[in-house]
Amino acid sequence: MERIQIADLSLQVETAGEGRPLLFLHGGDYFAQNRTFLERLAQRWQVLIPRHPGFGGSERPDGFRSVHDLAYLYLDLLDRQLLRDVVLVGSSLGGWIGLEMCARSVERIGRLALIDTLGVKFGGREQRDIADIYALPTHEVLRRTFFAPERAAPDHSGLDDAEALSIASDRAATTLYGWRPYMHDPGLRRWLHRVSAPTLVLWGQSDGIVSPDYGEELCRSLPNARFELISEAGHYPHIERPDAVAEAIEKFARVEVAS
Amino acid sequence: MKVWHFSEMAYHPAWPELRDSYRVVIPNRLYDPKIGADLYHRYLDEWALCDELGINIMTNEHHATATCADSVCTIPMAILARETKKVRLLALGMPIGNRNDPIRVAEEYSMLDVISRGRIEMGFVKGVPFEISPANTNPADLMERFWEAHDLILKAMTTHDGPFNWEGTHFHYRSVNVWPRPWQEPHPPVWMPVGSPGSAAEAAERGMTIGVLNTGWVRTPPIFEAYRKRAAEAGRPATPGRLAYMALIGVGDSREEGQRRADQILDYSRTSGIVAPQFMNPPGYASVAQSAQALRMSGAGFRAGRIQSRDGRAIDPRKMTVDDAIDAGLSFAGTPDDVFDQLRAFYDHVGGFGHLLMMGQGGLLSHEETVANLTLFSKEVLPRLSELG
Question: Predicted ipTM?
Fold first, then answer.
């Protein structure tokens, strides 16, 4: 784990593998479960895995509280590390951060892969695009989150202190960044045309948090995107089907580079 | 010792139709406004009677619930500010971290203070976790918002050469200028309910009066002790008048009658915690350490162990008997002598306090029974409270 100083913030970044840079932006929950997917990506890329400020007990300066702050932070990270032609992969909340980054600048971003991303409001004011995970019973949230919750959902009863604190801190940080407006930025849809990097919109076929229909609408709203469903997967397809998602990203990066 | 009568103005006619949640997700088709109007008027009559009995008045508020139909704590206070003449009026209170407009709070309290000719005591509350969903406020920075609202409200009520500017983290006004100014100088007394030694210390630093609710024999002493210690360190008064304790009180001509009244009031405790579990601990509301602990217990542990017997045994509030509640120090019940003796034992156990928040009505306790309860208390118990010191 490396610490990179960006303005008044000491960012925790883990780096794995070698090759072209890939920035992975994690979602709001299940951080530990990203491991298998990230190890697979690290066979081909130099994978940078920052911990969003406030998550996992990491430092978050006063007033650093919005997804916009996260977007500027990671644009700064790319500048600071002088990275070019970056493959940016974002899951859920991380995908939202990726969209906000690309709406601001794609200068250092070669490819964008969004996995069941949040962040955009498409429906009307009485329509909920993103399931309210804070108002649903736990079993229902799990059912909507995973294709096979009995296999994919971690058992929290055996956690040690550090693991339990880390997850609780992730969840608190997610509410801080995403509580209201709920998991989206009302202004983002207007600027999606600026997300000009070649984009792969990946979606778990059984995602009950944000539906594949939402993903398709997002794809249509982006200037240079294509959509791909991952079967037998919910909101975190890279956790339930790490190889399938990694292969899709590898193919996307290769094909697009070749063309 | 000042005594305050408190009722949540429960809409109990809906209770038989409720099961797993008495809050947040229950549709208001279960509320009949005609029955609700009768209930409001009888609860208000009971508070109005307090003016004659020498018992002060306390209101509170909750949202989207059949356990408490008082969704705006300043509305009954507004009625009672004119309907009563002598007793003091406490709202405990206003959930200022959940309200979007602190200036409106300053205006409501100031107006009430003037109409009542200086009888208002103003409570600022964090609010229970299941208030987050109805307010849709961010639980992760609730207390940050609470303290900014607190500072702004007090500044608005004490600034008499306004307008002034406020561009804070959460609240933004370029022309704060509250009319009317409050009657009391520099402002009405400020209260805060607390449930832990940590929040007691925060209140002590600011000289606030703390209201301690449902903490009982085991949890109350460390809270009062934390207040006294921090107040002394901060040079703030640590007098009994800064400490308030809430108890469910049933008094009768016989022990049986007093306990029967307490038993009905206890339906407040039996119902108020029945909430769909997902609303019990929105992430960020409690400390990370508390949430981590709850996570390992699949969430079942959050808010567990809040009610304890004198010897530290956990009591399930849904099944609590009057004997349990008396043992736990949550209720004082029986004849006037019983009530006084139980109160004195508790008072000595916790090192004294200056305010007794008396839940004199709760659950299905009828108007006639409530009037009898309050009247007997005022005649037979209230005069003896000076013996406590």
Answer: 0.94
